[in-house]
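Quick illustration, no need to memorize.
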Amino acid sequence: MRFGGHETFAIREGWLHKGLKLLIEQPERLVDEYSADWLGVGRNMAKSIRHWLLATGLAEKSTGQGSKKNARLQPTDLGQMIYDRDLYFSEIGTWWALHVNLVNAPDHAASWVWFFNHFNLNRFERSVCVESLRRHMQMTYKRKPNPKTLQRDMNCLLNTYAKRIPEENIDPEEALDCPFVELGLMTYFRTSGYFQTHQGPKDISPQLLGYALSKSIDEASDGKGTVDISIRQAAQTPGGPGRAFVLTGESLFELTLSAESKAKSDEIQIAGLAGERVIRISRKSPLNWMKEYYSVIGLKERHAA
């Protein structure tokens, strides 16, 4: 599990666009000494962009690069797809997919994996969250990160998702809110100092529900036909839709009902099995769910035109 790497910077508007574009069009510039100049950011920010490309699953280390700190990167299949279909990261589904990737990326985003899969408080103070992470690491791993590293990591995570209430009066050009704030997963109440996650239903497309199930449950991504996944399993599986989308079992059921009405060809259905509600879903790889998502978006755009 890896902590840090982001240089304390949450993702900023335009960063992934700049990083992915440079990665695909001029990959050698992403690792040379002038990478910050090519990206138009500061030196530490350039390191952060490189980290986030890896953590979100847009990039991977090139074959034979191993664990080299400045290893050459190459785009993943998802990274290439987003470059081709949503280069400016304007679709909310793109951000949902990247968020699911973070929640399933212990090698690059250990705090994200812990927070969404193991931290169960939905209203908390920052210090409580940091202390809970420290105790988890103490009980689970022999090698424990420095407490300051954990604190910086958790500060970065909270800044990634929390919408501040009331909003701060700052120049819009200086706003540093991470695009993940738009997912509506968390609020920070500035007056009380409390954070609160939002466990209610969310407007998530059927394809992104399929993506999260396929990403976290092997039976949903391999083979042909359909697979039945209980609502309970989908809600509790680490990295699955319940954990990643911050949903209760009932909220996940409502989301699946909505997905059933929108999905094509009975790809996602609610069924009953031995008295338990299950999600019946077509077996499909995460990448294929995203291909379908962008195809649906494209059809909508052509129809609107």
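The beta strands are 59-61, 73-75, 123-125, 162-165, 186-189, 194-197, 226-230, 268-273, 276-282.
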